[in-house]
Amino acid sequence: MEKTIVAVELGSSKISGVAGYVRPDGSLEVQAYAWTPVESCVRHGAVYNLDRTANAIATVISHLDGMLDSDIERVYVGYNARTLRTVPGSVESKFDEETVIDAETVDRMYSSDETLDSNEYVTLAHEAQEYVIDSRQSTETDPIGVACRSIRCNYMDVVISRPVAEFMAQCFADAHIEILDGFVSPIAQAHIALTEEDRQQGCALVDYGADTTTVSVYKNGLLRYLRVIPFGSALITKDLAAILGIERDHAELLKRTYGLCNMTKTVDTAQTIGISGRQHTIEEIGEIIGARNEEIVRNVVARINDSGYADKLGAGIVLTGGGSRLSGLQMVFEALMPNASRLRFATEPVVEVDWAEPSWNKNDGSQMGLLAVMSMGNENCCQEVEEEPEKMDAIDYITPEQQGNMGMNSLFTDDGENAQALRDQEEQEQARQRKLQEQQMSEQEEQKAETPKKRQSGFLKLLQRVIEKSENYLEGN
Asked: What is the pTM for the complete model shown?
């Protein structure tokens, strides 16, 4: 039986959810998709109205429930917000004598790197970098089995503002949604938007979203830098609406229709169109779009330069997100960044996807993060809804062959009890025992495969603290 994976992402402009299957070969099958706008309760990916956000989460889950023949019991969560960023960290272990590094040593070092947790920030994830052995000039990416007297691990710690993280965790607790695991959306996104070659050669993954734009830099297969810029393509829509005095929906249509038309020259920019009773040239519309877009792209370029890897990006820039659909965007990058000529648009994942859900806006890059979180799931999130079987008498279960081989008294035991019912109970117990044994074997295989051992994510730890804090508050009142 296939596992139904359910993922929910708190985006900068909407909360969205997806349900489907992750096949053994890594390909995906999307069965259901739902979303709801959150402009009234989430800004730049940060929750500011807990009640409305919790209701929005519950609404998305309810919509997904209605599309599936099952009840959703738990979910995987993707999170991204304006305060999300990476900070370098390191942990060192020294030994009295030559010691061979094992998985337990690596895991202990990993778990001890929580020094960044404070009243201001909380560490959500650790991305291991290189290991320095005995202060050598060269580094190791896999130190297990190496003999040494000291080892230092350099980490890239992914941190987020504590209030932002706690509010997000509280919303899921208030919505009574169990969290199986939480993932930093931009990091999860790299697994389906980038190839292994992209990450090895070096690239900047730019998620041009609605209210936020995220820049993630990879080199030698590792995350080197991550920053979230607190504005995105929705700001272009707001500018058009405010300057032209039109509704947001009309402004959004103008943005998608004309884009950076002053650069692309795809239309006659001297042409005028009537908007709310006034005439405006297409050039004027293009100038409004171009000015704000240039500001966003300049910020992206500045973040790439800050990473220290701007001249080491052999695979260039990879663009995704709804804002990446803006026509003429590549020309702006090329004008502002010399090596931006190596630029491609990740509008669809590198893994195969079967779009069984008809309403999904496919291959536009706008939901790449949500799809990435789904791809990370490995546990069933749903309880199948089983129809109550029609009750049958014991005699109805007997085949013609059985009828020819049995005596009239074989339907009952010597004590007068229903023999078929007893056989059914025995079969059910045997089936239960087989299922239990399979589950135990599966858990044992997972434990063997985990090197080093499985660690609880920062988000789950945070969620548990939020729940405990709420319980203590209730007890105190």
From this structure: 0.79
